[in-house]
Amino acid sequence: MPPVRFEVFVAMWNDLQGLGMPGLHVRIARWLQGEWENGHRELLLMAFRNSGKSTLVGLFSAWMLWRDPDLRIMVLAADLALARKMVRNVKRIIERHPLTRGLKPARADQWAAERFTVNRRAELRDPSMLARGIGANVTGSRADVVICDDVEVPNTCDTAPKRADLRARLGEIEYVLVPGGLQLYVGTPHAYDTIYAANARTDAKDAKPFLAGFRRLEVPLLGPRGRSRWPERFPPARVDAIRMRSGPNKFRSQMLLQPVNIVDSRLDPDRLVAYAHGLDYAERNGLGVLTLGGRRLVSASCWWDPAYGAPGAGDASVIAALFTDADGTHYLHAVRYLEHDPAEAARAASAAGQDDRDEASQQCRQVAAFLRENHLPSVTLETNGIGRFLPGLLRRALGTAGVEAAVIEATSRRAKDLRILDAFDAVLAAGRLRAHDSVWRTPFVREMREWTPGATCRDDGLDAVAGCLLAEPVRLGRGVPPADGVTRRKPNWPGGGTFKARTDFAV
To answer: How far apart are CA 46 and CA 151, in angstroms?
Structure first.
């Protein structure tokens, strides 16, 4: 029998089920077959929830096995139950579809719940189709096709560590797939930093998208003119109902395929205004002036929320610098996540009399460099927890580095959630908070997207920036420190010195 096109294969199945063939499914079927026959072996299918994409991929698996019974297909899903669901669906198709009934084996042990083997010519160790959860051990397995069906769900991507673990586990596919094998991802985005992102994220460490180079088909529920792509099943009234029930973020993520944080975050980083200008320090007529993109800055605040700063462990030690211009616009110019070198600290501990390389001293030197780079006249040090031991060390580090800056000690007594809300709500709503391009490459923006009051999530950068926003700003009119470390006469700032004038008044 000559090969039957996949869309015809689907139409035959739908007719058997008493169903029609929506244009949406015709489009997906043609794309899957076209990419397969053109030799493209890295594919991503994104379609809105309840579009029937997993059913179509199940039919595609049955069609491929009908074309080549020797194929080995592995289904990976967020959990084993979801992967089994697709395997059971393919088994039912093979049993009932007019073209595939001959593939069912006679032996019952070849027709199990999470794996089955069709009648085939080759003697192969691996079954024709196998279900696995993303956390399962797949070492030693081999497959010609790996289908990643909804591997990204809230349970696998709602925190940055979970997303990193998901990427690491998906990286194991390279050791399972035979050369020239097919990888097919099927799903919808559940996070801003999704594995399905078409572009690299500005706040991600990766230089390129996770699925860079994959051929993509994206089918959101609404077309360019806002019309439903499946009007028979999703008329305007139902679309509006889904939008109301799910909320804006979930609707954008699951129905429009736009990578956003699926939780309605209180702090929306899209309200930040990015800028790329650097600080410009100059002395004019003996007066120091600090500008940013041509705008003169009138105040600054710097906050350090200290922690041990061990690489990849525990709370982060974060310092932030915020400037304000005469119009009251805030510029979040720098956020730095400090870390110490454990090896250097260990060497210091074993060397008698050399205590300037311990964890705290290493961070204090980084803070001194941060203050110099950003022309900051002072830093507020949160003395809760380990911070109470740091003021003396920091002042000594500033003196050693030749940085003239004051160390202000502060104790936070309010709940952290309330401090963050008080600091960010008003300035974000008013559009008065700008952030330097470098800030978007730190974990700070990710913290904003994922932060929810009362939830357990990373907020170390948020706490440091909130401290800057809430602190009484230090007016720059009294002196902007130069960043070159050269000792010079302290500038005579407006209001900071005296001036003698000749007058004609007789007093």
So the answer is: 12
| Interval 132-162: pLDDT, tens | 999 888 888 899 999 999 999 988 987 778 8
pTM listed for this prediction? 0.69
- Cα R_g (the chain), whole angstroms: 30
Partners of residue 379 on adjacent β-strands: 407
Q: List Cα–Cα distances, 243 to 23, 182, 185, 238, 247, in angstroms.
A: 23, 35, 26, 9, 6
DSSP-based three-state secondary structure for 250: helix
Q: Are 189 and 258 in contact (CB under 8 A)?
A: yes
Average pLDDT over residues 360-364: 89
Residue type for 174, please? E
Burial class (CB in 10 A: 0-12, 13-18, 19+), 232: exposed
Better-scored residue on pLDDT, 402 or 201: 402
**Tokens 């050791």 correspond to what residue?**
175
CB-CB contact of 273 with 431 (8 Å): yes
User: Which of the 8 DSSP states describes residue 52?
Assistant: S
Q: What is the 3-state secondary structure (H, E, C) of 291-340?
A: EECCEEEEEEEEEEECCCCCCCCCCCEEEEEEEEECCCCEEEEEEEEECC
379, 302 contact by CB (below 8 A)? yes
What are the structural domains, with CATH classification, of the chain?
A: 40-254 (3.40.50.300), 269-478 (3.30.420.140)
State how far the Cα of 147 lies from the Cα of 77, in Å rounded to an integer.
8
- C-alpha torsion angle, residues 10, 11, 13, 17 (rounded to 10): 130
Give the integer Cα–Cα distance in Å for 51 and 28: 10
Structure token digits, residue 25: 């499914």
Q: Is 403 helix (H, G, I), strand (E, B) or coil?
A: coil
**Mean pLDDT throughout 31-46?**
96
Phi, psi of 108 (to 5 degrees): -70, -30
Of residues 440, 466, 435, 434, the one with CA closest to residue 453: 466
Do the Cβ atoms of 444 and 461 come closer than 8 Å? Answer: yes
Query: Residue 396, exposed/middle/buried by CB under 10 A (0-12, 13-18, 19+)?
Result: middle
Residues 6 or more apart whose Cβ sits within 8 Å of residue 360 = 386, 389, 390, 393
d(CA 381, CA 307) in angstroms, rounded, equals: 11
| Torsion sign (Cα): 123, 127, 129, 135 | negative
Rounded to a whole number of angstroms, the distance between the first and last alpha carbons of the chain is: 117
Among 115, 117, 128, smallest CA distance to 84 is for 115
What is the tens place of the pLDDT at every residue in 266-313? Answer: 788 888 999 999 999 888 776 778 999 999 999 999 999 998 756 666
Return d(Cα 218, Cα 351) in angstroms, integer. 60
Residue 489 has pLDDT above 50, yes or no: no
Q: Which residues is 186 bridged to in the sheet?
A: 45, 149
Compute how many other C-beta atoms are within 10 angstroms of the C-beta atom of residue 39. Answer: 8
Residue type, 449: R
